[in-house]
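Try this one yourself first.
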């Protein structure tokens, strides 16, 4: 099949777009609001976009509530200019999902999801103590994207990584052993995957 997303119906029971860009890693984003209240939410429009300097991005789309700018995470990042991206392991899948519920601003998803806050080294927001990997980030830039609904905002957040936490248990022979914590990934629909198998391939020489 072929279709032009902006012009044609896809004709399937569900929009296939996100299922076609799969797996996507999940940024479990921890922020503080201007009053110092913690917030935690997952974002799967997420990736690393630069290695030097190290830059991560995630994208938020939505409004909540009507008079508010956007998702709590985005508002907090724009107000406080700091955030932490935690990696969610398979063992925390239910806590990750629980933190996505549309709670009102000021509700602490750490408490709702049964998670523990750990202090960061450089930024003010806490990290998820149970997560084996966390990136402390400083807000760099917001990139506005078109939004199909004028009441909703859409856009990327770019952040420079200023500190990285790695639990010693996931370092094996000087390398990160993702199989030991099985990072969660988002697929389409309500589907997820976790990395349980890996393989290596040397880069080819030009011949
Ligand atoms: C696995 C997963 C991935 C998600 N990815 C995104 C995303 O990329 N962008 C987005 O705007 N919302 C995404 N959401 C929805 C937000 O997590 C949800 O709207 C959350 O309530 C936002 O919380 P906040 O208002 O505290 O920021 C995702 C939810 C889940 C469960």
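Now uncover the answer:
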């Amino acid at each position: 099949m072929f279709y032009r997303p902006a012009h044609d119906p896809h004709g399937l029971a569900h929009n296939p777009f996100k299922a076609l860009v799969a797996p996507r890693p999940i940024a479990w984003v921890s922020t503080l609001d201007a009053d110092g209240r913690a917030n935690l939410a997952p974002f799967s429009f997420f990736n690393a976009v630069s290695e030097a300097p190290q830059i991560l991005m995630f994208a938020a789309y939505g409004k909540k509530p009507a008079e508010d700018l956007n998702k709590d995470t985005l508002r907090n990042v724009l107000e406080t200019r700091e955030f932490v991206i935690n990696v969610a392991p398979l063992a925390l899948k239910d806590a990750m999902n629980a933190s996505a519920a549309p709670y009102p601003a000021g509700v602490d998803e750490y408490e709702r999801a049964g998670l523990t806050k750990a202090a960061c080294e450089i930024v003010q927001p806490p990290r998820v103590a149970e997560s084996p990997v966390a990136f402390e980030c400083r807000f760099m830039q917001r990139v506005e994207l078109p939004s199909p609904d004028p009441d909703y905002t859409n856009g990327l957040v770019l952040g420079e990584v200023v500190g990285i936490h790695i639990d010693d248990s996931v370092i094996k022979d000087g390398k990160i052993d993702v199989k030991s914590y099985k990072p969660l990934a988002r697929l389409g629909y309500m589907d997820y995957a976790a990395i349980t198998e890996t393989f290596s391939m040397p880069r080819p020489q030009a011949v």
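Discussion: The mean pLDDT is 94. Residues 89 and 199 are 19 Å apart (CA to CA).
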